[in-house]
Design a protein that fits this description.
Blueprint (H helix, E strand, L loop, with lengths): L13 E6 L4 H36 L3 H27 L12 E4 L2 E5 L27 H15 L7 E7 L1 E4 L2 H15 L10 E8 L2 H5 L1 H10 L14 E8 L2 E8 L9 H4 L3 H57 L7
Parallel strand pairs: 6-7
Antiparallel strand pairs: 1-3, 1-4, 2-3, 5-8, 7-8
Helix pairs in contact: 1-2, 1-3, 4-6
């Protein structure tokens, strides 16, 4: 299903991904599987931390009592987490089938963060409710960070069909003013004020099916850059933080991607390839590109030579034709006067 009048609703959090054209359904299934796996990991880690904090509080009440409760509590927490994860995998737990993908356009997928209303509901942006109030829970940014961090560590393929991947913290109406306003808290958190060394960053902007916003591309990028504290510097070649703005029809999707360059610009195909093999592939691509350019230049030079030769032959033929005409004229018998 699609989100109301727009393919992606306003003030929603989720994930934007591109997939090989014609294989969106397979890419979508891969994506929801990965997101479910990492949502469970983030939730389990959060519960483990909460239980750890609770354990410390209990220990403060009495040494003897704390030791007994800690021994029993640790095992109980581990068993409870294991049982809950087993239920999730079997489709019985509250997190079963919590993600659903939507095909937005050719090769473009959207997966909303699940809300309390049910699986795949298009919820509010990270940390916001319907009217902007704070909500507790796992954010799209945290799930996305878990996914790409695991892939960066393993460098093993997770899908043959998924290409780019962007965790989206919030969405807004696709206009310059609304984009700058909605991006402000994301920029403030990722690139804060301060006196220390800044962070190299870039703005990653793309617009699909919205010609008006595409024409404002540079204005929007400039305004976003102006909102960043001066100690952070733009570095398009090697950014550590990317402020992402993806416009799809009437909606702008905003998020922050960390370690952007190190994580292959969040290209899951590249990130899921061992570095040495990836470099070999890139070297082969560079070689093929160079050979293609050389062949193109040779073909152009050959065409120019052929054209020049044809012009020369044409000129020679014209000259011979003129000479023949002159000779014929000279051989014409002169008319005798009457």
């Amino acid at each position: 299903g699609r989100g109301g009048e727009r393919d992606v609703p306003l003030r929603a959090a989720g994930f934007l991904a591109t997939a090989t054209s014609g294989f969106e359904s397979k890419g979508g299934r891969d994506l929801t599987r990965l997101l479910q796996e990492h949502l469970e990991k983030v939730e389990a880690a959060g519960k483990g931390e909460a239980e750890g904090e609770r354990k410390v509080e209990v220990e403060g009440e009495g040494e003897g009592k704390a030791e007994g409760e800690a021994a029993g509590g640790a095992g109980g927490v581990s068993a409870a987490l294991a049982a809950e994860l087993a239920e999730l995998r079997e489709g019985k737990g509250e997190g079963a089938q919590r993600f659903r993908y939507q095909r937005i356009s050719n090769g473009v997928l959207w997966v909303p963060m699940p809300s309390e209303g049910g699986a795949g509901d298009a919820g509010a942006g990270d940390g916001e409710g319907a009217e902007g109030e704070k909500q507790e829970g796992v954010s799209a940014a945290a799930v996305g960070e878990s996914l790409v961090a695991a892939l960066e560590a393993s460098r093993s393929s997770v899908s043959r069909f998924l290409l780019r991947f962007f965790p989206i913290s919030t969405t807004c109406y696709a206009s310059k003013d609304e984009i700058i306003k909605a991006a402000a808290p994301l920029v403030a958190e990722a690139l804060p004020e301060g006196d220390g060394e800044g962070v190299p960053y870039a703005v990653v902007f793309e617009a699909r099916s919205n010609g008006a916003v595409r024409k404002q591309r540079m204005d929007i990028i400039d305004e976003l850059a102006k909102s960043v504290p001066a100690r952070h510097k733009v570095n398009l070649d090697n950014p550590d933080v990317a402020i992402v703005c993806q416009v799809i029809k009437g909606t702008a999707l905003l998020g922050v991607c960390r370690r952007f360059k190190a994580r292959e610009k969040y290209n899951l195909q590249s990130l899921g390839t061992p570095p040495d093999l990836l470099e070999e592939q890139r070297e082969l691509q560079r070689k093929e590109h160079k050979e293609h350019l050389a062949a193109k230049a040779a073909a152009l030079a050959s065409a120019n030579e052929t054209g020049a030769a044809a012009e020369g032959d044409s000129g020679a033929n014209e000259a011979e034709g003129d000479k023949g005409a002159d000779d014929a004229k000279a051989e014409e018998p002169k008319k005798e006067d009457d």
